[in-house]
Amino acid sequence: MRRRGWTVVAGAVLAALLVFLIGQAPVKYVILGPGPTFDTLGSYDKKQVIQVTGTSTSTSKGQLRMVTVNVTDDIDLLSAIKAWFDPQEKVVPRELVYPPDQSNEQVEQENKEAFQESQSSAETAALRELGYPVQVTVKEVVADGASAGKLAAGDVITTVDGQQVTSTQKLQELVRAKPVGTELTVVRKRGDATETVKITTKAGEDGTPRIGVSAENKQPHPFDITYHLENVGGPSAGLMFALGTIDTLNTEDLTGGKVIAGTGTIDDEGTVGVIGGIAQKLVGAKDDGATFFLTPAGNCDEAEANAVDGLKLVKVKTLDGALQALSDIRAGNPTPSC
Pairing mode, if any, of strands 69-72 and 63-66? Predict the structure, then answer.
């Protein structure tokens, strides 16, 4: 009996050791969890998140909070199992976040660049709402391109085939809307003179129609806007940066004194796009006191499936739509819902 007892004990110890070692084994997954949220109308690291100099600004009683997702890498099996049963977390294959052909540093750099691009597009869309139209200005003309001798650096392109060119994005859409070899009617402004020119598109290296110019958005305005937020990546804060910029420069309090969170990419035309990690972002928003959540229309199904009690989902497709939703919230009117 004594010999058998020691055998049982030794077997139990070895089994426990084996389970422990298996549990400590690394797995090729990451854990997505609720990340911190940031009030775009508030401060971060003793600086205003949206800092405007050169003009007067306003303050709001409420908050416009952008949301984030926390990614935990280098996890073991036990951590993955624990997170699997946690309703606030999600376990996904590591390659969905960190592609195997890219290093962690490369992914982080791309996310950082996407974050900066989202701020640029947010500023463009917000300034248009505030009455500062975009001037799509030619930077360079390809020597043997379709526009050689017809456009020059400094020209402002105002219309293509009668349609307003409201951003470089819009210019690209209008040029690519018709087959290669199409003659486009382009109105340009050079100095004080406005002239119409005919430009026949040529195929680019990828086969798409091109007019052979590089252009940039210019929005003359008598003040400077700087965004201060560190250690955040990705494009999903674009909508909330745009709304925060408008609120800061507008005398009207867009929040109505409420804590409103939201997410969504934004382009120069003010279109709100889908994002990832909506389930975790909803939890983070609720934890930080939000009662309304501006949700990209393309994320509505997933958001509704992961709805959080006390957090109303408000469906938005554009910056204009988001502004109207905020107006409805202030007035106590029904809002578009997921």
Answer: unpaired
Note the helical H segments in the chain.
Answer: 2-23, 77-84, 104-129, 168-176, 238-249, 278-287, 300-305, 319-331
Question: Which among 127, 209, 117, 114 has a CA at the least distance from the CA of 166?
Answer: 127
CA dist 336 and 21 (Å) reads 51
CB neighbour list of residue 109: distance below 8 Å, 6 or more residues apart: none
For residue 194, give the H/E element and its range: strand 193-200
Give me the residue label for tokens 């869309």: 125
Distance CA 64, CA 111 (A): 22
pLDDT at 286 over 90: yes
Round to whole Å and give the CA distance between 315 and 152. Answer: 43
- For the entire predicted model, the pTM comes to 0.84
Please check whether residue 130 is in contact with residue 57, taking contact to mean a CB–CB distance below 8 angstroms: no
Residue with tokens 């406005």: 194
Per-residue pLDDT of 11-29, as tens digits, reads 444 444 444 444 444 558 8
Per-residue confidence at 3, pLDDT binned at 50, 70, 90? Answer: low
Query: What is the distance of C-alpha 235 from the center of its chain?
Result: 3
Contact 54, 224 (CB under 8 A): yes
* Amino acid identity at 53: T
Q: What distance in Å separates the CA atoms of residue 28 and residue 33, rounded to the nearest whole number?
A: 17
Say which residues have a Cβ less than 8 Å from residue 272's Cβ, sequence separation at least 6: 238, 239, 264, 265, 266, 296, 297, 316, 317, 318, 319, 321, 322
Amino acid at 259: V
